[in-house]
Amino acid sequence: MVTFTKDSEKEIIIKQYWPQIGRAASGYENRSALSDELAQEMALSVWRSLDRFNGQCSINTYVYRVIHNTAIDHIRRHSKLSEDELSDKTICEHTSPEADALQAQRQKHLMNAVNKLPLSLRQVMLLKLEDLNNVEISDVLGISEANVGIRLHRAKEQLTKLLAGMN
């Protein structure tokens, strides 16, 4: 059993996963103030849950599971939207001001398309964009690996159609 007995150990985990927490928060909540609130909720949930981490899965999978569950709870409390109307974001690297502007435009189109995906597809895309493999996504969401693959395929198909319609 793995235990995090010191607050400094928990702080290290929170710092390590803070970028992922921020991206996940903005992926599940597109309202800026609520996204910031959700990121704080996620970090606090991870902090509190580390005492219960028993090593049955990787710390990476465990943290994403906590983040996911916190997001779902947040959505149920704060959103009047159905679960099929939630959002997801991606973070891309930029190399020049021109590339930044072009990438920002592409990212805006992508976000508009992703915002139209059902929650079940957005969830797998969000985790895939965080570089989790299908096994880890399966563990986080509690679905089969086959289901992860199907959802990813459907999400990509829908995103392709949505992005083609935006041009």
Can you give a write-up of this model?
About 70% of the residues lie in helices and about 0% in strands. The termini are far apart. It has helices spanning about 5-30, 30-50, 60-80, 95-115, 120-130, 135-140, 145-165. The protein is mainly α and about 170 residues long. It contains seven helices and no strands. Helix 1 packs across helix 3 (about 60-80) and helix 6 (about 135-140) crosses helix 7 (about 145-165). Residues about 80-95 have low confidence and may be disordered. It folds into two domains: about 1-80, Rna Polymerase Sigma Factor, Chain: A (Orthogonal Bundle); about 85-165, Orthogonal Bundle (Arc Repressor Mutant, subunit A).
- Report mean pLDDT, rounded to a whole number: 81
* Strand residues, percent: under 5%
Major sheet attributes: none
- What's the helix-strand series? HHHHHHH
Domains, number: 2
Task: State Rg.
Answer: 16 Å
**Helix/strand structural class:** mainly alpha
In total, how many beta strands? 0
CATH topology term of the largest domain: Arc Repressor Mutant, subunit A
Low-confidence stretches: 80-94
Mind telling me which CATH architecture of the largest domain this is? Answer: Orthogonal Bundle
Query: What separation lies between the terminal Cα atoms?
Result: 52 Å
Q: Given the C-alpha coordinates, what overall shape results? A: globular
- What do we call the CATH homologous superfamily of the largest domain? Winged helix-like DNA-binding domain superfamily/Winged helix DNA-binding domain
Organism: Pseudoalteromonas luteoviolacea
Keywords: Sigma factor, Transcription, Transcription regulation
GO biological process, one term: DNA-templated transcription initiation
Family: Belongs to the sigma-70 factor family. ECF subfamily.
